[in-house]
Amino acid sequence: MSKNITKREEDYSKWYNELVVKADLAENSGVRGCMVIKPYGYAIWEKMQAEMDKRFKETGHQNAYFPLFIPKSYFSKEASHVDGFAKECAVVTHYRLKTSEDGKTIEVDPDAKLEEELIVRPTSETIIWDTYRKWIESYRDLPILVNQWANVVRWEMRTRLFLRTAEFLWQEGHTAHATKDEAIAEAEQMLEVYADFAENFMAIPVVKGFKTETERFAGANETYCIEALMQDGKALQAGTSHFLGQNFAKAFDVKFTSQEGKQEYVWATSWGTSTRLMGALIMTHSDDNGLVLPPNLAPIQVVIVPIHKTDEQLETIRAEVKKITDSFKKLNISFKFDDRTTFKPGWKFNEYELKGVPVRVAVGPKDLENGTFEVARRDTLTKEVVSKDGIVEYIQDLLEEIQSSLFNKALKYRDEHITEVNSFEEFKDVLENKAGFISAHWDGTAETEEKIKDLTKATIRCIPIDRKEEEGVCVLTGQPSKGRVLFAKAY
Questions:
Q1: Which of 259, 289, 423, 485 has the greatest number of beta carbons closer than 10 A?
Q2: Where is the Aminoacyl-transfer RNA synthetases class-II family profile domain (predicted)?
Q3: What distances in angstroms separate CA 149 from CA 63, 281, 347, 432, one per listed residue?
Q4: In the beta sheet, which residues pair with residue 268?
Q5: Long-range contacts of 447-454 (CB under 8 A, 24+ apart)
């Protein structure tokens, strides 16, 4: 099996697109800007979904489902919200088609115009807060801790598999609280859940921070985010959590009777991650040979390839391998015994390397004679000969080692690509010749933020939560600054 993938250093964008398709993750569909997620890609998403869902439920959240369609009047109630999404909205205007008189064409039936146009969900705050109005009367009804797994539509002009598509999959949490402090604590808690998931499950190091006022979610008082760094030195927003204040409660008149008997507006949060995480996974770990998957996310953690000439040899290998795979089942290690006779072992090795299977085991007649197996690591492309007596424990430890090794490798790259600069010349030089996060002083104004973006295409990715107070001057204007922020070019 020939990979024929463009090298990363030659054309990173082309490498990414080819890898997504050739590793059987996704492909473009017949609908402009939309993708088909193939079974192997969806299996990875399911692992992400299952782990996040478990964490949400551990923090007291429940899943629900809300309509795909939002009446236009709902959407326009929160002014900054409609401003933020207006250019990306798909709108349903009619509910019926009809055939032409000759029966050869289909057209919209002009008599089937909707009384009120419907927006195809770009996010669900408006429909959910209209619903919460019916659910909430008293402080006893709070908090509401709800999550939704759904698809959303944002009519993107320039699309890219997983990273930016007109329709994508995500989860969106929407919570309602009696107090401001409770809502802020919720938004901060979910940021921690996302950061822990990214680092300890996906092996992707992230920076936790706040978005600037310009970059906040439309309708939020505060947006918290996790930012990751890809191997080409560009940043990728991996998850966001929003403190919405009382904006949506006021827009939809959602009040509750407090313990003191007063009528008060509810406090809100929303938070989400999407199939963009698939893009982050690919671009953080993979190499010129194909995907590199952390064991936590690999649909197949171990593949076993028999090497044989006769059916008798294959049967002997199969019997020996069954002892190992029975142990794998007890340990919840996912595996595949690839005994297809239609492909040679070398072809199979190539296929599983391309698909990022963390561990490959090869076994032939000589291995059985010697009581050994050949074990290959996908992340380092190294091999070891391991005694069959200790093979299960060896592989169990190896999977843990690969998971932590991938995180440490990505962390080293990220940390080596956070550069402090003190002048705009330095800023431009790092952006052009090194890339990554640039830690720089900023005067806090939207005008300066916009000007730097216009001049360099770099945006403020976040104001790090753990930044230290440090008097300085803005790299562009020379005006006073109270601390550094992280700039980068981004996806």
A1: 485
A2: 27-294
A3: 8, 20, 38, 39
A4: 176, 245
A5: 448/474, 448/476, 448/477, 448/479, 449/212, 449/214, 450/214, 451/476, 452/427, 452/476, 452/487
Tokens of 324: 């190992």
pLDDT by residue (tens digit) across 12-49? 999 999 999 999 999 999 999 999 999 999 999 999 99
In this structure, the dihedral spanned by the alpha carbons of residues 142, 147, 151 and 154, taken in order and rounded to 10 degrees, is 60
Is the separation of the CB atoms in 29 and 17 below 8 Å? no
- Topology of domain 421-488, CATH: Translation Initiation Factor IF3 (3.30.110)
d(CA 150, CA 477): 44
Return the CATH superfamily for domain 12-285.
Bira Bifunctional Protein; Domain 2 (3.30.930.10)
Task: Give CA angle at 193 (140, 403), nearest 5°.
Answer: 155
**Residue 1 pLDDT greater than 70, yes or no:** no
Tokens (6 digits) for 409? 């490798």
Residue 342 near residue 394, CB atoms below 8 Å: no
Question: What count of Cα atoms within 13 Å lies in the side-chain half-sphere of residue 111?
Answer: 1
CB 143 within 8 A of CB 184: no
Contact, 229 vs 417, CB < 8 A?
A: yes
> For 202-252, what is each residue's pLDDT tens digit?
999 999 999 999 999 999 999 999 999 999 999 999 999 999 999 999 999
**What distance in Å separates the CA atoms of residue 273 and residue 293, rounded to the nearest whole number?**
19
CA distances from 415 to 418, 421, 436, 437, 487 (A): 6, 15, 9, 9, 14
Q: What is the pLDDT of residues 278-300, one digit of tens each?
A: 999 999 999 999 999 999 999 99
- The rounded distance, in Å, linking the Cα atoms of 185 and 188 is 5
